[in-house]
Each structure stands twice: as structure tokens, then as C-alpha cells.
Amino acid sequence: MSSLCREVITLQLGHFSNFVGTHWWNLQDASLSYDPESPPAEIRSDVVFREGQTPAGHVTYTPRLIAMDLKGSLQTLRQEGCLYDAGEDASALTWEGSLVTHKESPSEKNSFLKDLDQLDSPPRKSSKNSGRADTVNSQLNRIQRSYRLEGSVRVWSDFLRIHLHPRTVAVIHQYNHDGEAHRLEAFGQGESVLQGALLEELEDRLHFFVEECDYLQGFQILCDLGNGFTGLGSKVTELLQDSYGGRGILSWGLVPGAPAHSSPVKDLYRLLNCTLGILHMATNSSLFCPLSLRGSLGRVPAPPPEFPHLYFDPSLWFHSSAVLALALDSLTVPYRLRNNSPTMWQVADSLVVSGRKVVSAYGAVPFPMMHGSSLPDALSACAEGLPWKPLSTCPERGRCYGQWVTLRGFEGQKLISHLPAGAQPPTPLHGHHSGEDVLAAYLTSFYPSTPLALQLVSAPSQLMQPFPQIFSSSLNAQGFLQSLQQPHAPPPAVASAPVLTSLQSGSALDSWLSEFHQAARGVDVRRVAPSFFSQGPEMADYEEALEQLHLLARRYRDDSGGRTQSSSEDED
To answer: Where along the chain is composition biased (Polar residues) (predicted)?
Structure first.
């Protein structure tokens, strides 16, 4: 395929989505290369980054991003950023009238943000001709310091490495981030908020980023799924579908891990928001995938997935968002590649068949590969079961209709087994002659008749500060398993990690969606949650949505002879 840059615009809607997005952008920034003499990277940064210029002539690199959040959610981050400050020109303005000074103590910055403040310049190229660049983020690498921010991260800007464009951050002032009053809790509230000035502001920002693109391939949306941002996300995807219907719209519904403080009412609201959000966002998107480290999105709690080589607190947003961002960095690789890159809608079309727009995600974070071994060795060690865990609270079972698998970060490892001439391969996997054939053969043994798309990318995700060190001591600095460990030596900081991910459409989504339908249908919402519908939707619209969700679940039914758990309930 052509190496033409196909730009992507990202939207982040909600506080947890901005947590995941911040980690994701930090990962993108850590992989940027400014050396014109180095070979082109496998992943094109200009797919998601834009190049601009400050009034002073500095060339800047900022995300092609619109991020929405609530009043009080930014803390130390300036909404307009600092790249385009007027500087001394602003101080030249004079006012001859009386002045009243109001003083307010600024929010305390953590050690990471204080170090960022000490660096001397915004991101810029050193000159227009050299092609080289010196950025705040590259300067940060010179500070040899390890940050432990678990106790100091309150909001997503507390660990943001990069500068944002002035048109990126939009604040919804009608609702508060903190406190119990004026919270964006219900689907109808989110639907109602996108009108008037906020709608005009969103459309203005979209036009700004779209008009800069030479070949816009589409939008990737990160949206909170368990609160009122779900309604906002539904309206945003509807707007994008109406205005840019020929582009890809890939939506990721984010739900944080099990909260430390919950209640039956909050659990009910989360269930109803997820139920309506999954249906509406899937309807208006090319593809919709929920992402969460919860064991279940329903009202019944379930233990979170266990990753063998990670030690993290699922209830700590700084941790759970880091794991999801690392997986998302692999899941979004296909349409960000420099060569042989499919478009967003091609990725969606390969999975979305017969109206099955909801898919589930799975990931091996990190992929368990021994340092110095080969891909056949690593996969043979996983012959008894797939190495990945659910990232969408949807366990694998039943039939898989299609999947897209990405292996990223095997740099320095062997993709095939180099056997002596005439030697018998120890397993069939060791007899293949390319990494793609090895991985395809392994997956075919679990999914014999499933259409399969593969992407293998050598470069790993770079885990620079302040990515949390949530990895086990069994990993070396490159994220590979190490056979020998020094008994008294501290474990090395993991600076990169191999990741294996899968996007799937399968019959497991039949029972998963049906569980939402059954749980929501079993609630007397008029009695239990009347305030949920205070700003919409109407009860008739809600009942129609439940029926549409039921029909969507039936599209995933396995008609090949096997029946899923929910199939017996279809005639209820």
C-alpha cells in the first residue's frame, strides 16, 4: 500500500478517558524520533501528531486532539496551554481604571511537573533546515530520576509529558469534576449538554483540525462509558457520522477498575449508562470496543483479569489507565503504520459483518517472551491456552467470526527458529519460515476457520517516565522474561514492553450483550432510578433501545450448531 500519511483526529471524552489518553500520548511522544539520519520509524507519528508554528516562529508538534472534561478537572494545566503565549506583548496593554486584586493559592505540583517546569523551552525544531528538534520531552530524558506518582496523581494532567494545542482542551462548565453537586451522572445529561455554545465550540475545533489534513482517514474516540459522558459520546459520534460519514469512526468505551467507594445507585447508573452507550455509540461508529480492567460491567461484581507479569492496583486510575493505554498502543497500530497500512474503515470492515459493530479486545501485557529465545519458543510455551486476558470484560468462548491480531515489540528477538540443516523441528511452529506464518499457525490451532488479519511490528512501546513501574521482577529492561536474576539486586526499570493484542468479533458477545439486556430489563427504572430520566431519554425511547440491544445480541448467535448461554433466553 501507499505510504501516504492518512491523518487521524482523536477525541477524549471524560476524565478516565483522558487518563488513558494521557498515557497513550506519552507513549507516542516517547517513540518520536527527530534525527533526520535515522531510518524512518515503522509507525508514522504524523498520523496523530500535527506540525504547527508559534508566533515566534518555533515549529511545534502537538496531538491532533480534542479533549473534553468537567469544571475543576484540570488543576495545574492551563486550558489554552503555553505554546502560543503572547509573552511580553500582553504586558504592554495598559488600564487606567481602578484595579482589584484577587489572590488564590495555585494547586501544588508533584515532583514530575516541577521538573518539567525547570526545562527551558517549549517543543520546537532547532531550525527549519536542520530537521532536528529539541523538546521539553526529549530534555526530560536527561533528568535521571525515577518518579513514584501513585500518591500524587489527582487528575490526568499530573502526569502529562506533552504540550497541547490551544484548541485541544474543552471544559464543560455546567458540571463539576469533584463534589456531590452538579455531577454528570446520567446518559440524558450528556445528550443534553452538547448544544448551544458547546456544540459550536466542538464544531469549530473539528473544522480547524480537519482542514489541516491532506487525507483524513477518520476519528478515534475515547469515551467514558459508565457516566453521563456516554450520552455526550453518543451525540458526538452521531455528529461525526452526519458530517464525515465517509471516514472511519473507531470508538473505545472506557470504564475504570472497581472503585474504592461504590453504592447500589452508582452501580445502577453505570449499568444503564453502559447499556445505552454501547448501543448508541455502536450505531454511529464504524466499530465500537469497550475497554476495562473490571471483571464485569454489570451490577454483579467479578474479579479483574490477572496479568501474570504485572503488579498493579486495579482501583488506582493511574495504574489501570496505564495498562489499557499500553494495550491500546498495540490495538491502534494497524492504521498508524508507515508501510502496508490499512485504513481505519478497512480494519472495521474486516471485523464488522452483518451489523456486528461491537467487538471485544484481549491482550497479553506484556507478551511472555524469554530474552534470547524465538517466537516459536514463546508460542509453544502457550500451547495449552492463549496468553491474552480480556480487556473488554468479555471472556472468550464459543465461535470467533473474525479477528485482528497485533504483536508489537519483539525487537532483538528471533521470529523463526534457525535449525541446523536436516534437523527435525521440535514443534510444527518451529518449521515455519516467517514470523507471520508462525503466529498465523499458532492462532489457527485455536480458531481453525476464523478469518484472520495480522500485524507484526518490531518496535516496542517506549515506557519513559512517568509511566508507572508495575512490572514483575521476572522481566528485564526490555520487558522480556529473564532466566537468571540476581538475588539481591534491585529489579531493572522496564523501559519497553512487547505486547500481543486481539480485536475479535465472536459469539461470546451474544451472551455478553444479552446480560446487559436482561439486567436492564429487570430493573423497574421508574421506581428505582426516576432521576436517571430527568433530562431524557423518554421511557419509550429507553424501551426501544433495550429491544435494539436484544436484536444486536442475536446477531452474534452461533448458528453453526453450537448454542451460546443466552440463546435459550432469546424467546423470553
So the answer is: 128-137
* pLDDT range class, residue 35, cuts 50, 70, 90: low
Give the count of domains, the chain. Answer: 3
DSSP 335: G
In a 13 Å sphere around the CA of 40, the CA atoms on its Cβ side amount to 9
Q: Model's pTM, two decimal places? A: 0.90
Burial (CB count <10 Å: 0-12, 13-18, 19+), residue 287:
buried
Is-contact 311 387, C-beta < 8 A? Answer: no
Residues 195 and 318 grouped into a single domain: yes
- Distance (Å, rounded) from C-alpha 17 to C-alpha 26? 14
* 475 neighbors 364 (Cβ within 8 angstroms): no
Q: What grid cell was written down for 224?
A: 467514558
Nearest to 9 by CA among 68, 49, 61: 49
Residue 500, Cβ density class (10 Å: 0-12 exposed, 13-18 middle, ≥19 buried): buried
**Do residues 458 and 500 both lie within one domain?**
yes
What CATH number is associated with residue 207?
Answer: 3.40.50.1440
Please tell me whether residues 276 and 364 are part of one structural domain.
Answer: no
User: How many Å apart are CA 486 and CA 522, to the nearest integer?
Assistant: 56
What pLDDT is recorded for position 297? 86
Domain-embedded: residue 175: yes
Q: Residue 522 pLDDT > 90, yes or no?
A: no
288 with 426, same domain: the answer is: no
If asked whether residues 347 and 369 sit together in one domain, one would say no
Could you report the per-residue pLDDT of 106-127, keeping only the tens digit for each? 667 877 877 777 764 444 444 4
* Residue 110 forms part of a structural domain: no
Q: What is the DSSP string of 397-464?
A: -S-EEEEEEEEE--TTSBSS--PPTTPPPSSGGGG-SSHHHHHHHHHHHHSTT--EEEEEE-SPEE--
pLDDT tier, 527 (very low <50, low <70, confident <90, very high otherwise): confident
Give the separation between CA 313 and CA 317, rounded to whole angstroms.
Answer: 8
Is the same domain home to 276 and 304? Answer: yes
